[in-house]
Amino acid sequence: MSASNLKFLSFSGNSRILHLSWMAFFISFVVWFNHAPLLVSIKETLGLTDQQVKTLLILNVALTIPARIVVGMLVDKYGPKIMYSLLLGISSMLCFFFAMADSFEQMALARFMLGFVGAGFVIGIRMISEWFPAKQVGLAEGIYGGWGNFGSAAAAMSLPTIALMFGGDEGWRYAVALTGLIALIYAFIYYNSVSDTPKGSTYFKPKKSGAMEVTSKGDFVLLILMTLPMYGALALLAWKLSPNGVSLLTESVSMLIYAGLILLFLYQLYHIFQVNKSIFHTPVPEIHRYKFKQVAVLNLAYLATFGSELAVVSMLPLFFSETFDITVVQAGLLASGFAFMNLVSRPTGGY
Are 66 and 234 in contact (CB under 8 A)? Predict the structure, then answer.
């Protein structure tokens, strides 16, 4: 079976799983970026400063960094069906929390925790890889990722209009809460509509968990080095929230966070060693070896591409609204054009 034979218009077999999964990813992106096209209204309602708005944009993606790693390990253990349903259900509660926030501090906490929903990508990727053969998995995952990413464009196009339909200065709250309600309903739909693998297949779980396996001492060192940017990014966020930035955290709390990040790194270092300690006394057979630098290169490529997309998707509606004399609805429609190409570019890349 070739990639060209993927039955996209069908709603049975693995095509059904594909459609249900990209819709889950689509909803997760709507929830993740439901604030972006509404920032003008949010800023006016709560009287936020430009610095506070920028902080919200940073917080929105901060938790996604460690969440994808943790959720990835949980998917290996419990399977994508349970994890996607839980992710959507928990995210809906956080969405309601954000919609009801009446201070910058509450909004910042809600936005930080909502970064958790950005981990949905890794769940669906595992689900699709279980249901599609090697010759189709690239295209299938491209459709899953591209149509799911379109959720940010859908949010930009629709939420400002929905907020206006509810009316008043608080219209944005109802628009945001509506996305949470959709996520909650779909969590139950997804759980009752999919299975982790096709009938008769086995869901394989890793023999070792807690860290990635490498096959040489050099790769062991490289793996450790590749974990450092995550802690650097989180430390930078803590600095941004400290008295040196927006003063959301006190100096003592900031120092505690720095200390916690150091302890967390040492804890992860311990797990990396526990998972890979055998390579120091027993060489891995040549047939089972791989070069970790391939993972590192892909990591950096994803940082440059998807990282830049997240940055632009977050700030573009506000940029258009503040730079040009247009309405919030018009700014959202214009900004949606950036993510619109995901409908074509990701499936094409997967093909």
Answer: yes
pLDDT in tens, 145-161: 999 988 988 999 999 99
Number of Cβ within 10 Å of residue 34's Cβ equals 28
N-to-C CA span, the chain: 14
Positive or negative, the CA dihedral 245, 247, 248, 251 is positive
Residue of 278, 68, 43 whose CA lies nearest to 172: 43
Given a contact cutoff of 8 angstroms between Cβ atoms, the answer to whether 338 and 316 are in contact is: yes
The separation between CA 334 and the C-alpha centre of its own chain, rounded to angstroms, equals 23
Helix/strand/coil percent split, the chain, to 5: 80, 0, 20
Q: What is the DSSP string of 176-189?
A: HHHHHHHHHHHHHH
Task: Please tell me the predicted confidence (pLDDT) of residue 246.
Answer: 83
Find how far residue 16's CA is from the centre of its chain: 23
How many helices and strands in the chain, by DSSP H and E? Answer: 14, 0
Which two tokens mark 163?
A: 């907020």
Distance of CA 262 to the CA centre of its chain: 24
Residue type, 52: Q
For residue 150, give the DSSP letter.
Answer: H
Of the candidates 85, 67, 73, the residue with the CA atom closest to the CA atom of residue 24: 85
Distance separating alpha carbons of residues 194 and 43, to the nearest angstrom: 40
- Reading the block at residue 263, the tokens are 């302890």
Q: Is the pLDDT of residue 134 over 70?
A: yes
Sequential DSSP letters for 269-286: HHHHHHHHGGGGTSPPPG
Residue 235, exposed/middle/buried by CB under 10 A (0-12, 13-18, 19+)? middle
Q: Calculate the CA dihedral of residues 317, 323, 328, 332 and round it to 10 degrees.
A: -30
In one-letter notation, the amino acid at residue 237 is L
Q: Give the Cα separation of 243 and 251 in Å (integer).
A: 6
Q: State the Cα–Cα distance between residues 149 and 119, nearest whole angstrom.
A: 13
| 110 Cα distance to chain centroid | 15
Stated pTM of the model: 0.89
Q: Give the start-end residues of each E strand in 152-200.
A: none
For 140, what's the count of Cα atoms within 13 Å in the CB-facing half-sphere? Answer: 28
